[in-house]
């Protein structure tokens, strides 16, 4: 029972309406394993990039086969589709209040859980691409089997680790609707590049959400979304952030660490900026473009 309780995230009594998360996908595709699959992750993991150059010209609409139905909190604690739905519900509520409070206009992103392959306004993608946000169609795409791959990079299995990934992608949507995506030069690389700043800011935004999710109340049920986050759960999220650091991925792929090629930041940076958002919980604290200390 102790181990089970350490994995519980959503507060008992909560529920999440269906229809928010679409799902579907294309035919079977070779996702790529080992070094090939890892190479794709190195390039595209967690980014709001145009995928057409590598993954195929594409540019169409995803093939929708249905939506995730209504889920209880108990289901969201054990089922990945329901966990995705509940996390998105929580993110909608949090950012739907935070952005207008900061003087901005908020709109919800689309969310699509795909299997094997998907066609998007950014191009065609496969499961090996990893989760990504597509600015032209303002949609988050992810294959839920990615979370099994995440553990291969050194992350610990746990619900908050998965939610960190989802919240990071949602952070890219916040950057899109607030103009950061348009203003940043996301084509460059290097430890001080705009590409790294964009990714670290999305990590910080994920931390902002996590730091408030246990006190953010679902307006439909009157129940806070998450139970208070335990140290073990927080460690799961930090381990996921470390796993997708550029230096860790470069080491896992068998090459040397080369900061000049970084696009997402080191493991230490990703953990630190998530923690900054988690502890300080302000957009100002997450302004990675206003600091020389990345």
UniProtKB/TrEMBL annotation:
Coiled coil: none annotated. GO terms for cellular component: membrane. Keywords: Membrane, Transmembrane, Transmembrane helix. Residues 260-269 have a biased composition (Polar residues). It is a single-pass membrane protein. The chain crosses the membrane at residues 29-47. Its main location: membrane. It is found in: Membrane. Residues 249-269 are annotated as: Disordered. This is Membrane protein. Pfam families: Zn_peptidase.
């Amino acid at each position: 029972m102790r181990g089970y309780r350490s994995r519980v995230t959503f507060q008992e009594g909560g529920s999440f309406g269906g229809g928010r998360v679409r799902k579907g996908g294309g035919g079977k595709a070779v996702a790529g394993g080992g070094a090939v699959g890892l190479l794709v992750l190195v390039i595209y993991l967690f980014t709001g990039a145009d995928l057409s150059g590598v993954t195929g010209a594409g540019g169409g609409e995803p093939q929708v086969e249905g939506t995730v139905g209504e889920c209880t909190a108990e289901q969201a604690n054990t089922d990945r589709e329901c966990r995705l739905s509940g996390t998105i519900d929580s993110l909608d509520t949090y950012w739907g209040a935070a952005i207008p409070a900061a003087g901005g206009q908020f709109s919800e992103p689309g969310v699509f859980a795909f299997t094997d392959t998907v066609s998007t306004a950014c191009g065609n993608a496969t499961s090996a691409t990893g989760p990504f946000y597509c600015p032209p169609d303002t949609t988050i795409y992810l294959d839920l089997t990615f979370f099994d791959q995440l553990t291969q990079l050194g992350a610990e299995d746990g619900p908050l680790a998965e939610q960190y990934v989802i919240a990071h992608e949602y952070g890219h949507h916040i950057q899109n609707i607030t103009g950061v995506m348009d203003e940043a030069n996301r084509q460059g690389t290097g430890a001080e590049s705009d590409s790294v700043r964009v990714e670290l800011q999305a990590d910080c935004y994920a931390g902002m959400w996590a730091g408030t999710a246990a006190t953010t109340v679902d307006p439909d049920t009157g129940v806070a979304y998450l139970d208070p986050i335990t140290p073990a759960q927080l460690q799961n999220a930090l381990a996921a952030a470390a796993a997708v650091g550029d230096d860790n991925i470069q080491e896992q792929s068998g090459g040397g660490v080369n900061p000049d090629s970084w696009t997402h930041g080191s493991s230490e940076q990703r953990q630190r900026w998530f923690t900054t958002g988690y502890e300080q919980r302000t957009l100002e604290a997450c302004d990675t473009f206003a600091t020389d200390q990345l």
